[in-house]
């Protein structure tokens, strides 16, 4: 930071908001447990999400064991298999990825990147985490209740979700719906904070068009979540009533075991509409923060400004808006008027345009850049490739005529794991390698990191690439045991066994990463405040890790965008956002 | 939750009108909504999100009502009261609506006196608003009791489609919960106004932020929203 008296700079507007009072912790409890500091809340969110995510990882191993070696593991019966896929999906999408990107990265990075001392409502922010934790505990408790967790599939489609015959009909589904309602309440408290902080609490000179793309991604995703989660909230409340009070919102007249049930007149399709009005934006709630973060990783580690910054911002906003009018492409096989199918296929394919803009811009950022193959960069590159891969199969599934035969096959599993499973997780991992030095003041070990990357990246391809082929063969998803089917060649079973072995290896390789996180906390190489020589504000904090209130006495003043890398004529190959222009610095030196 | 939002008196330029002004605000630094405090911005965005919840509830109800194959109970008969031997349709709902709309009036007056820093009148008007709200919830409880006595249940009713009872209890219940939360907030804020917390800018216990009379307006925003939602419920459920 160049030492310039702020008054000397005339072209940065004066502060509009007086300094706020932060809550100052008075005890160990209010400092580390019931903390109102966004950075502590971020770590609490991240650790909770990771813990429940590891449960989901173990569930995926159990599923793969059953699929790879059907009949070998007697402790996995058909009901349990359905429970495993349900819990795996729900945990990974909502309790891990959504919570980690918005609650974890959002809380940590937004105040630091926009130059705020904290979120605007630290107390509400704290409540957000505790309600989230409660939601996770309610979810986890379903493993221990009579009947176990629900096995309805993560989409929870009625009527089967609440009928006997679906595992977890007693308590599992009730607790799952309750947990989702709690999650949404908790998320709303946090989400309001993120949005208002970005809109109303930026530091002097930080215009919206100077925000790092990470903030743009998280910000847009949060707005989408605030508008999409209500649909899930309503769907959960109504299904809870159907289950507990025997209302018939989603339940048509049914005959079960020869007996007419008390339900009648409800619409299962209504649930699907509500669910996917949430469910499709949810895909981008997970993807947009990843888009934003990966843009910053690429720009920093290629020492080059992001290509087409404004286009990148508008592409994020356009994807966010479009994702609200594509939801029924998840329902092509549910029975719809063909013209609706045409409409939703068209909007779905239109989303490919802003998405392609983003991919081209990432590639053009790399073009003739000074690429450093650091671990975060490797993960970012892995993301681009994987995302393009998963996105291309999305074009197949977005078309009605191609989707109908591929629906409910392994092709779909391969598609969404590539595009919203592996790709965002690669970004999460890359982002952890990138920002870990800011959290701890120490670098993660490079050799372990590279090992972790290559095993994860190549392993993910070995796992999910063959699934496309299985899907084209017609291998169905969600089946406990396919048995002997004429259209499935025996080689498919060999392939399944192969996938399982790789999945176990890749899963265990994540332990290397966890070891790295703990080991580097104590033994890692000290990083200093700005190890990647990055421009954004979080790297310019006076302390590392940043102290309470982030910025010491004076808030930073921003003079430039976030991507001044390799500027011709500059002393260094990066210029921090809060470094005044040379002309101003010279003026400031005058009395 | 009120937040300091002092506009710098040295702010050089006057606000620009129209779309150019909006563009100027959004491309400026620090704040996208000039002169809007954090608390007020948060309440507006929360209400936007809540709008989606009520919209989903109402759309689901409309879907059920339009697709049902059995008759829908006639609201003007179901929601009628027999007064002095004559059946008056929708009379209770009319009174409830009148009470709730009136409470919006007293709330607006409370906001006005709040900004004049008239401690006593503000607190009194907020309590009147809360009393109107409590009256509304009380009458709703009466209506629920009446319908339950007549045999309406979430899973069925004597007159037709089962979704009538389930939608009715769910939507009015969710709205009633909003009103109840509003009443609790009104009483809590009125107490702080009465005590003079906002005159001395006493700090919040949990937040350690200074309190301001603006919180009266923010509570008012929520209250007016709840009233507005009722108008839609009234129109779509009772008048349809």
Distance between the termini of chain B: 40 Å
Percent helix of chain A, as a range, is 55-70%
Number of domains of chain B: 1
**Based on the structure, what is the oligomeric state of the protein chains?**
heterodimer
Class based on secondary structure composition and strand pairing of chain A: mainly alpha
Descriptive notes:
The complex is a heterodimer of chains A (591) and B (240). Chain A is mostly helical. Chain A has 15 helices and two strands. Chain A has helices at 28-33, 38-68, 78-114, 122-141, 172-200, 213-244, 268-301, 309-322, 338-366, 375-398, 400-406, 410-440, 446-473, 490-523, 582-589; strands at 255-256, 259-260. In chain A, strand 1 and strand 2 form a beta hairpin. In chain B, strands 1-2 form a two-stranded antiparallel sheet. In chain B, helix 5 (119-149) runs antiparallel to helix 6 (162-195) and helix 6 (162-195) runs antiparallel to helix 7. Chain B has one domain (45-238): Cytochrome c oxidase, subunit III, four-helix bundle (Four Helix Bundle (Hemerythrin (Met), subunit A)). In chain B, a hairpin with a 2-residue loop joins strand 1 (80-83) and strand 2. With 240 residues, chain B is mainly alpha-helical. At the A-B interface, helix 4, helix 5, helix 6 and helix 7 of A face helix 2 and helix 6 of B.
């Amino acid at each position: 930071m160049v030492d310039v008296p702020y008054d000397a700079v005339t072209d940065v507007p004066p502060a509009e908001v007086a300094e706020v009072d932060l809550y100052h912790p008075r005890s160990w409890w209010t400092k580390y447990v019931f903390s109102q500091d966004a950075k502590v809340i971020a770590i609490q969110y991240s650790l909770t999400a990771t813990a429940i995510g590891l449960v989901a990882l173990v569930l995926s191993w159990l599923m793969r064991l059953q699929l790879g070696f059907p009949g070998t593991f007697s402790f996995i019966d058909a009901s349990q298999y359905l429970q495993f896929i349900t819990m795996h999906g729900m945990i990974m999408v909502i309790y891990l990825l959504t919570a980690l990107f918005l609650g974890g990265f959002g809380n940590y990075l937004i105040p630091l990147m926009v130059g705020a001392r904290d979120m605007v409502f630290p107390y509400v922010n704290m409540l957000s985490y505790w309600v989230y934790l409660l939601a996770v505990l309610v979810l986890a408790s379903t493993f221990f209740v009579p009947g176990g967790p629900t096995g309805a599939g993560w989409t929870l489609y009625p009527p089967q979700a609440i009928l006997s015959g679906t595992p977890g009909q007693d308590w599992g589904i009730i607790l799952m719906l309750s947990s989702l309602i709690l999650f949404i309440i908790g998320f709303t408290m946090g989400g309001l904070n993120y949005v208002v902080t970005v809109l109303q609490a930026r530091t002097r000179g930080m215009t919206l068009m100077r925000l790092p793309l990470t903030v743009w991604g998280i910000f847009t995703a949060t707005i989408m979540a605030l508008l999409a989660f209500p649909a899930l909230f309503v769907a959960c409340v109504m299904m809870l009533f159907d289950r507990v009070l025997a209302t018939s919102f989603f339940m048509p007249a049914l005959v079960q075991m020869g007996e007419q049930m008390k339900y009648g007149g409800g619409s299962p399709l209504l649930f699907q509409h509500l669910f996917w009005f949430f469910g499709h934006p949810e895909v981008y709630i997970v993807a947009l923060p990843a888009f934003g973060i990966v843009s910053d990783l690429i720009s920093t580690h290629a020492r080059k400004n992001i290509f087409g910054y404004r286009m990148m911002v508008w592409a994020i906003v356009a994807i966010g808006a479009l994702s609200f009018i594509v939801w029924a492409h998840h329902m092509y096989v549910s029975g719809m008027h063909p013209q609706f199918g045409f409409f939703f296929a068209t909007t779905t394919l239109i989303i490919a345009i802003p998405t392609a803009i983003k991919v081209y811009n990432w590639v053009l950022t790399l073009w003739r850049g000074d690429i450093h193959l650091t671990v975060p960069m490797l993960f970012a590159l892995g993301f681009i490739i994987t995302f393009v891969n998963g996105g291309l199969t999305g074009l197949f599934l977005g078309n009605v005529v191609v989707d109908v035969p591929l629906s409910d096959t392994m092709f779909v599993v391969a598609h969404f794991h590539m595009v919203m499973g592996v790709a965002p997780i690669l970004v999460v991992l890359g982002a952890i390698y990138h920002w870990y030095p800011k959290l701890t003041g120490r670098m993660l070990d490079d050799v372990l990191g590279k090992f972790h990357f290559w095993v994860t990246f190549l392993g993910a391809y070995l796992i999910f690439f063959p699934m496309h082929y299985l899907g084209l063969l017609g291998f169905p998803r969600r089946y406990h045991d396919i048995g002997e089917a004429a259209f499935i060649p025996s080689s498919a079973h060999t392939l399944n066994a192969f996938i399982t072995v790789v999945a176990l290896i890749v899963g265990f390789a994540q332990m290397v990463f966890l070891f790295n996180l703990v080991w580097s906390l104590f033994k890692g190489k000290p990083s200093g405040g700005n190890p990647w020589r990055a421009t954004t504000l979080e790297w310019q904090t006076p302390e590392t890790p940043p102290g309470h209130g982030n910025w010491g006495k004076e808030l930073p003043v921003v003079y430039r965008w976030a991507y001044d890398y390799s500027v011709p004529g500059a002393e260094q190959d990066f210029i921090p956002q809060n470094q005044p222009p040379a002309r101003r610095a010279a003026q400031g030196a005058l009395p | 939750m009120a937040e300091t939002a002092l506009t710098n008196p040295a702010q050089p330029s006057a606000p620009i009108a129209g779309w150019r002004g909006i563009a100027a605000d959004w491309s400026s630094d620090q704040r996208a909504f000039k002169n809007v405090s954090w608390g007020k911005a948060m309440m507006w965005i929360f209400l936007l999100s809540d709008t989606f919840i009520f919209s989903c509830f109402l759309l689901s109800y409309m879907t059920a009502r339009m697709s049902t194959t059995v008759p829908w109970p006639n609201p003007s008969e179901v929601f009628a009261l027999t007064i002095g031997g004559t059946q008056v349709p929708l009379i209770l709902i009319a009174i409830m609506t009148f009470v709730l709309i009136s409470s919006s009036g007293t709330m607006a007056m409370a906001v006005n006196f709040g900004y004049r820093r008239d401690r006593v009148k503000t607190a009194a008007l907020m309590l009147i608003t809360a009393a109107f709200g409590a009256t509304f919830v009380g009458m709703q409880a009466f209506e629920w009791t009446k319908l339950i006595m007549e045999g309406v249940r979430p899973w069925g009713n004597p007159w037709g489609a089962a979704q009538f009872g389930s939608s009715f209890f769910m939507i009015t219940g969710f709205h009633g919960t909003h009103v109840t939360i509003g009443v609790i907030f009104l009483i809590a804020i009125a107490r702080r106004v009465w005590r003079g917390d906002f005159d001395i800018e006493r700090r919040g216990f949990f937040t350690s932020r200074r309190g301001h009379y603006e919180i009266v307006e923010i509570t008012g925003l929520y209250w007016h929203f709840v009233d507005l939602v009722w108008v839609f419920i009234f129109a779509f459920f009772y008048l349809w």
